[in-house]
Design brief:
The protein has about 675 residues and is an alpha+beta fold. It has four domains: about 1-195 and about 660-665, no CATH class; about 215-250 and about 530-625; about 255-265 and about 430-520, Chitinase A, domain 3, CATH 3.10.50; about 270-430, no CATH class. It has 24 helices and 19 strands. The strands form five sheets. Strands 16-3-18-17 form a four-stranded antiparallel beta sheet, sandwiched between helices. Strands 13-4-15-14 form a four-stranded antiparallel beta sheet. Strand 1 (about 45-50) and strand 2 form a beta hairpin. Helix 9 packs across helix 24 (about 645-655) and helix 10 (about 200-210) packs across helix 23 (about 630-640). The relative contact order is 0.14.
């Protein structure tokens, strides 16, 4: 379709735009059609709020989102990182969909068909619709006429509808479902926000925190000033602190591994083989009349007769092609760079072509308007279209087959011309041959056979000077290990293996063979005390240091006495407020800030165990809040402050409480 082609041509909607709409995804009837969904006795990727998610539906959702990515980005394929991002986003969408659906059913909330219709094609469509470039006019603005035309095209009852039409239907169905879920989310969070409003007591405390202030004198002693040898921290102390703050250490099951790598690199014989091949082709490459056949049969870079400019030609050929001695049919010698042998032949030179052209799509139906598409370089248009657009003159028209049929374009303007050349490039990267690959694999395999236990494994690593890479706390759904490409299989092995100290088989991860050692299995709901013992010990030691420092100043009645005992000085903190973030020069010492207002004026406090120091303070001047609390204003301000984060917190809590079972690691 022309509208889809326009999206691809411009490529202005980045993938992040799709990411921003992820929470608005809903599977709907597109994914859940047919009662067989509930009767299939197959594997499930998980369960959300009582609904089991079948693997085929999960994959369908991934395919649908991938198609949307392709259309919005103008790309036909994605790297491993983007593919992983799509899969993770699909799972997040499912979490959103099913958790919200279950809650909405309980409270009788829904988006009706009429409501959805108004949001999608009414007089004021939803923002998710109005920001789609597919529905923009020639001025780059949303056009309801363009939207209606698009919907009319995809509504054709054509049994032989082509792939573009099916893709357009999928594209619309995605955004229609996105609008539905977004509206449902907005309804739910709006309801929750009206229930979770600030009250008069909140208003009073907010007013006092802002308006009350105090000047304080204080003495502080950093815990680092007390020698650790003076403090005894027992296992009982650490256990008590662990139990007190155990919820901070909640976790999901994890595995830790260490691994060695064996680089898959070409051998000397592989380099010689490619060099010999290039030498054998050099004469034919220089003299052949069928350069396309020679290049396309032997090169990693296909011959496409493109017109290179000085900006687009590979840097290593620039001087050769655009230098003062450049002439047709001249050839470079055989070059070597970055494990690649290459040579180039100048097929054409001494001519110019425009740097870019401005195009307009000519309307083909009555009532339609022409659409200005903008400026394009040759690379943006593709070879077939560029050959017509870049040889024409301003005002000239040409016709191309685009989408569902013929489309006519007009050349609105032509930019200045600059020199061009046509270059044939014969290029071969040196890669490991099958013989080299087998030898390297056998080397890694032999390492596995000789090192089946952890002790032997570690001994061999040390003896041979190999590097042992750690990967701690792997999540079962992690898509790779560290920077290892295509290493999902290692994660799966780690979670299928039942014995710590197990050594894996050989994994191929991009340009490396990998052998892994399973160092720990953690199935507990909470991190074990041993893992957080250092943190707990520090906290327990600091508390005991605060107690130690308190004993030193017991019975003292002035700050100067305390300062002398601690070998420090009395300091001042002016204008201390409860809504501030610092206490004097101490930083965020919230206990001291609270004690300031809980202690009478000119009265010395007890020793306060702060975050980084023990503190004794005395308020010297306390100023009460002036005026009366305007509860209505304070409540409005408080609600406004949390209006941004509260919807996300509500949805996060909803998903947390949705009894989620995540088994994706079995299928990735």
């Amino acid at each position: 379709m022309a509208t889809l082609q326009k999206i691809r041509n411009h490529g202005v909607l980045l993938l992040v735009i799709v990411g921003l709409a992820m929470l608005a995804f809903i599977l709907g009837d597109f994914l859940n059609s047919g009662s067989s969904f509930f009767n299939r006795n197959r594997e499930y990727v998980g369960q959300i709020a009582g609904t089991k998610i079948h693997y085929t539906d999960y994959e369908q959702a991934i395919e649908q989102l991938t198609e949307v990515y392709k259309i919005e980005s103008g790309r036909s394929s994605f790297d491993e990182e983007t593919t992983t991002q799509i899969r993770n986003q699909v799972w997040q969408m499912m979490l959103m969909d099913y958790s919200l659906r279950a809650e909405a059913e309980e409270i009788g909330m829904d988006v009706t068909a009429d409501e959805l219709s108004q949001l999608c094609i009414g007089e004021n469509p939803h923002q998710l619709i109005t920001t789609r470039r597919a529905f923009f006019d020639e001025n780059g603005q949303f056009s309801r006429d363009m939207l209606v035309r698009f919907l009319h095209q995809i509504d054709q009852d054509d049994e032989d509808s082509n792939a573009n039409l099916q893709q357009a239907r999928t594209y619309w169905m995605y955004w229609e479902n996105a609008v539905r879920l977004t509206q449902m989310q907005d309804k739910y969070t709006d309801l929750a926000q009206h229930l979770l409003t600030a009250n008069k007591l909140d208003a009073k405390y907010a007013f006092m925190a802002r308006e009350q202030s105090a000047d304080v004198q204080y003495v502080a002693q950093n815990y680092s000033a007390v020698a650790d040898s003076l403090i005894q921290v027992s296992n009982r102390d650490i256990r008590a602190l662990y139990n007190k703050q155990k919820e901070q250490y909640k976790q999901t099951p994890s595995r830790s591994i260490e691994y060695v790598t064996f680089a898959i690199t070409p051998s000397e014989q592989d380099f010689k083989a490619v060099a010999d091949m290039m030498n054998s082709l050099e004469e034919e490459f220089r003299t052949t009349d069928d350069i396309a056949l020679v290049v396309n049969t032997n090169s990693d870079v296909m011959y496409d007769a493109r017109h290179y400019s000085e900006q687009t030609i590979p840097e290593r050929y620039k001087e050769f092609a655009f230098g003062k001695d450049a002439q047709k049919d001249a050839c470079t010698g055989i070059l070597f760079e970055d494990n690649t042998y290459s040579m180039a032949r100048l097929m054409n030179c001494g001519y110019s072509r425009p740097d870019s052209v401005q195009l307009k799509l000519i309307a083909t139906q009555e009532g339609q308007e022409d659409s200005e598409l903008g400026w394009f370089t040759e690379e943006q248009l593709g070879r077939d279209m560029a050959e017509k657009a870049f040889i024409g003159k301003k005002g000239q028209r040409f016709t191309m087959t685009v989408g569902l049929g013929e489309q006519t374009f007009e050349i609105m303007d032509v930019a200045k011309s600059s020199p061009r050349v046509q270059l044939a490039i014969l290029e071969r990267e040196v890669t490991p041959s099958s013989k080299t690959y087998s030898a390297l694999y056998n080397q890694a395999k032999q390492f596995v056979m000789n090192n089946r236990s952890e002790d032997v494994f570690r001994g061999t690593v040390a003896e041979e000077g190999l590097t042992l890479y750690p990967a701690y706390n792997l999540d079962k759904n992690a898509n790779k290990v560290g920077d290892l490409a295509q290493s999902r299989t290692i994660v799966r092995w780690a979670f299928e293996e039942e014995s710590e100290g197990a050594v894996s088989d050989v994994f191929e991860c991009g340009d490396k063979f990998v052998v892994a050692l399973l160092t720990s299995i953690d199935e507990e709901d909470y991190r074990p005390m041993s893992e957080v013992q250092a943190e707990l010990t520090l906290k327990a030691r600091n508390q005991k240091k605060a107690d130690y420092l308190a004993e030193q100043v017991k019975g003292m009645t002035t700050l100067q006495e305390v300062a002398t005992a601690w070998n420090t000085t009395v300091q001042t903190a002016n204008d201390v407020r409860m809504d501030a973030y610092r206490f004097g020069s101490m930083g965020p010492e919230y206990k001291a800030m609270g004690a300031t207002f809980a202690t009478d004026e000119n009265t010395m406090s007890e020793v306060i165990a702060g975050n980084n120091a023990a503190i004794v303070l005395m308020p010297t001047a306390k100023r009460a809040a002036q005026g009366e609390v305007n509860a209505e204003t304070e409540i409005a301000t408080l609600n406004q402050r949390r209006a941004y984060m509260l919807p996300y917190q509500i949805i996060n809590l909803l998903q947390t409480e949705s009894d989620v079972e995540d088994n994706r690691y079995n299928f990735q």
